[in-house]
Sequence to fold (526 residues):
Amino acid sequence: MNCLMDSKTQDQKSIGVAVAATSAIYIYLLVFAFPFTPIFSETDQLIFVYEASRLLHGDVMYRDFFQFTFPGTQTYYHVVLSLFGERYWILPFTVVILGSVLTFLCLKLSESVISGSLRFVPSFIFLFFGLRWFGLDGSHRMFSPILMLMAVFFLLSKVNRKRLIAAGVCCALASFFTQQRGVVTLTAIAVYLVLDAFMTPRGKAQALYDIAVMSGTFLMTIGLLCLYFILSAGPTDFFYATFTYPAKYYKYVEANSYSVFVSDLIKTASAPGISGTLMFLGSVFYSVILPFAVLTAFAVFAIRRKNVSWDDWRGPMLLSLLAAFSFFTTTGPNALRFFQVGIPAIIVFCWLLSRIGMAAKKEQRLTLLSLTLLALIGLSQIYRMQTHWDFSIVETRSGKLAFISAEQARFYQDLSDRTQGGEFVYQAVQPYVYFPLGVRNPTRFSQIWQTDYTRPEQVAEAVADLEKKRPRYIVWDNNYNLSPETRKPDDHTGPMAEMVTQKYFPNGPVYEMDGRRIQLWKLRSP
Fold:
């Protein structure tokens, strides 16, 4: 018997290693042009590595530059940049690590709740039917799910004080990256503990004690993690940036509002070609099918709760609760954000399939068909990434980069040729140029948008910084050059546009990128 158990454990370890290695190779070929050139991507991950660079050069987060997330991601990149230097390859390599760890955790959690061969399917779904479109991201959004899953993993097999403390620490670490996600995970686990008290002899008093242990651990840990940043920036700046600002103004970007649910589905439905069709199907799967699967799991449990073994439902119910709280508390609910927290729901979806009579009878065939189809999708994605695009290679101060967009490559080459490392340059819309080109932001603010997301006082302070430090170049979106009568009431960029047009002049071509008319404006001679 012991030999059989050892053999089974060894097989599980081998499978886990194989899945992690496969995922690492697959993701590597999506973020590096073979063999070693990082593929450049203008996404939010650049914000966090840029801010880590500011930390590396002595700035204090929240005081010297504005950010509304908790500082976990910046802390990670600060440490890594300190070790390896300000090299762009750190970003895609981090994406490889994050995706591989999440795929491995997906497999381990699946093995805990699905006994048959379908336990292998969730990790393949996550890896090959979603990650390419929604998960190639080195920002806080892909760090925090790792800690959320680890918190649940500690409590799947049994609940005791040590495991509750470990779960509380994981929830705090999740919040250290994305403040609300640790709280969401803590809440989901608390509801599970209460439900467990009703379904077992543990009792309500024990459930309350367990919740208190986990919550106390969470509060102590997150307090210690954030203490340095609170003291260095000052409590006023820290709490305004991380609580007051997001509560009041985060919603004033469409991507952060509930309307994005429909608009993103419409957008992906119009994507051309087979790859566009697959992306649309992925959007439907994560935005519609998975939330419905979670609700179905709750409905089945409610109907059959008197005739089912709670031991069989413990794991699926804990994962269902985490999925439900993650989905239905998400701001900007779209496929991208559902995917990031979607692993529990994927596992619940496959667990439900394993309990359907017809699927259970043909489980091995269904598994083989699913794994083959998903693997083919994955192979087609890496083949397309490596062969479809004619990459433009640009030598930057952070290393050699491969650009998919030739227009984008020309812009970065142009700005790189005009500037020197460490020079002040201001990019008004997004802080994408700073890290790859090794230039510095002369202001506290890195996002100036034409909505209430950007406050009038932020624009005024940024203008004052620009007046004081007078960078030679401003990366400007000419769409911001509006007359006062055509500017919308929630657009507070007028003072900056006025300053730019008065003290700078357009110097070079207009680059059409992502719906924006980007141009370099140069400081006028005194």
About this structure: The beta strands are 32-33, 37-38, 392-396, 399-403, 425-427, 473-477, 504-506, 511-513, 516-523. Residues 273-304 form the longest helix (32 residues). The chain has a mean pLDDT of 94.
